Every structure is written in C-alpha cells, then in structure tokens.
Structure of Glyoxalase:
Amino acid sequence: MTINQIQQIGLPVKHLETAILFYQDTLGMKFLFQTETMAFFDCNGIRLMLSIPEKKEFAQVGSVIYFQTEQIEETYDKLIEKGVLFLDSPHLVAKSGQIETWMVFFKDSEGNTLALINERLA
C-alpha cells in the first residue's frame, strides 16, 4: 500500500454561503460545485472541501492550510484591502541554504487559521 498524494482537504464551517464567498471572492479560489452542506474548490489539483459537519465530533477547528504564493507581500496587501484578518505580517520563518521560507497567518470567515507561504532565493 502506498499513499503518495493529497486528494482533498476538508474544513468544517458553520455558515456555508459566507465561507463560499470568502474562498471564492476574497481568496480567488476556483469554485467547483456545491451540495446542500458542502462546497468544493480546486487549489491547483488539490480539492478543498468546506462542509457543515455531519456530527458534533467533526465540528472542531481544522489544521492550518498553507497556500503557496509567489509574491507574499503583494498578496498580503491585496487581502488586507479585502478585509482579511491577519494574525501577523509576512516574516521569515526558516532558511535552508539559499532558500528562505516566509509565512503569514490569517483567519477565514469561519475562524479557521490559514497561512500564506513563499519559498524564495535568499
């Protein structure tokens, strides 16, 4: 048995329509389709599923999803203009050889913590 690819990431939401607007309009993700309790987006081949949890035990806040961006400062500025609540500003978190890793954390419309990540030459 081999597991070698992420097919889908699921995030619990309380207000599906608000979450759809955030991911589609604010973040600019490609909307795929929706059901009564779920909405699906394409993130460069990985499907993001927003869902109203079926059971109470699935309603906890999800893991941090790190969205890659080529220009972290520019993306940060554009999302601030759209009203996104950032927890910090873009900052260097690691350096390995000639590669620097920059991140910034923010909240979605449902309170989930998300991040932008940018890896670039030092």
Q: What stands out?
A: The two ends are 39 Å apart (CA to CA). The CA atoms of residues 86 and 106 lie 4 Å apart.
